[in-house]
Structures are given as C-alpha cells and as structure tokens.
Amino acid sequence: MAEGIRQNKGNNVVRAAVVASKLICDILYLRKPTLYAISQLISFRNVHMLKPNILNLLNEQIALEDYSANLYLAMSSWCGHQKLSGSAKFLEAHSDDEHSHMRKLFTYVNETGAMARVGALAEPPCEFTSIKDVFEKTFEHEKFITSKINALVEACLAEKDYSTFNFLQWYVAEQHEEEHLFRSILDMMDIVGLDGRGLYLVDKEIGKKSQMA
Ligand code: OFO
User: Fold this and answer.
1) CA 44, CA 38: separation in Å to the nearest integer?
2) How far is it, in rounded angstroms, from Cα 79 to Cα 49?
3) What's the gap in Å between 160 CA and the centre of ligand 1?
4) Cα–Cα separations (whole angstroms), residue 56 to 50, 59, 106, 146
5) Nearest to 161 by CA among 65, 55, 62, 61
C-alpha cells in the first residue's frame, strides 16, 4: 500500500514536470509574438517619459522642420523658374535636409514611447522679388528656427529632461552651421554684386554649396 502511494506521488511529480516543460516550450517556441509584445511593453516602461509640455514643443518643432522643407522647396521652384539653376539645386537639397531634421525628431519622440504628430502646415510663400530677397528670407527663417530650438532646450533644462536636452544638442550645432551658411551667401552677394555677370557667378557658387545644404 505504502509502495503504491509512493509510486502515485512519483507519477504526479513526473506529470507536473511534463506540464511545466510543455508550458515553457509553448512560451519559447509557439508564442513568440506574445513574448515580443511583453518585451516591447517592458522596454517602453524603461524609456524616459516626456513631460506634456516637452512633447508639445517637440511636436511643434516637427511641424516647423516640415514647414522649412516646404518653404525651401517653394523657393527652389521660384529660382528654377528664374533660370537660377544653382540656387534651385541648393534649395532643393536644403529642403531634403530639413525633411531629415523632421524625421530625426519624429523618431526620437516615438522612441520615448510618446506619439509624434504630423501637424497641419501653412502654405509657404512662392513669390519673391529677387534672389537676394530669397536668401534674406532663408536667413530670417533660420534665425527663427534657432529661437525655437533654444526655447526647447530651455524648457528641457527647466523640466530636468536631460535626455531630450542631450538629443537637442545636435540641433543647436546644426543651427549654428545653417545661420553661418546663409549669412555667407548674403555676404557673397554683397561683395560680388548681382548686376550682369555677378548674378551668374553668385548663382553658380550657390550651386556648388549644394553638398553643404
Ligand atoms: Fe534649417 O533648420 Fe532644421 O533644424
């Protein structure tokens, strides 16, 4: 009788072990999507949460970078229409650049577990009085973007959001480069002049700067 009870207990242990191992196999091999979902949930909980005001500012910046891309594309179109092919090429390349700035912010926001938004955009101006007018407007626009990046950086410091502060350093450096680039184009226009051959030479030189756009 005692022998029978011992054997029964032994069978229960073996049965429990089989059920447990089947369960483990089930989780490991048959439920990969479930495991993946769990790991995603864990990783989302580990990333830092954006404060609502920082998220709003980042989403506003996404829309601004997107607007910049459209603005430079509209300017490129105007230059092309005026037979200023160097400037058209430069501004088209710069539009692509702005789009990549937008995507970089978009990816960052989504990586934090928050949701990046693609906001509505105003139509950019498409008529300009001269090539000088175009580049004066690009310079003013870049100074405006710098002020928005600086406001974002200040908000991050106030909220002690050091991760976003660190991420934004790339934009701080980028704005310095872009303001310098557009200022140097305006300086060239002043030095060379835009009468007769001057316009041809300036447009050609701007075209060469496409790779720096
Ligand atoms: Fe030209 O600015 Fe983007 O960031």
Assistant:
1) 10
2) 44
3) 24
4) 9, 5, 12, 17
5) 55
State yes or no: pLDDT of 6 exceeds 80: no
Q: What residues line ligand 1, using a CB cutoff of 6 Å?
A: 65, 68, 98, 101, 142, 145, 171, 174, 178
Q: Which CATH architecture has domain 49-212?
A: Up-down Bundle (1.20)
Give 13-38 pLDDT, tens digit per residue: 556 655 565 556 565 555 565 655 55
Task: Give the global pTM.
Answer: 0.78
CA–CA gap between residue 182 and residue 167 (Å, rounded): 24
Structure tokens that stand for 77 in this block: 């179109």
197-208 and 131-158 helices cross at what angle (nearest 10)? 30
- What is the residue extent of each domain of the chain? 1-46, 49-212
Residue 98, pLDDT score: 98
pLDDT (0 to 100) of residue 29: 56
Distance from the alpha carbon of residue 7 to the mean position of ligand 1, in angstroms: 76
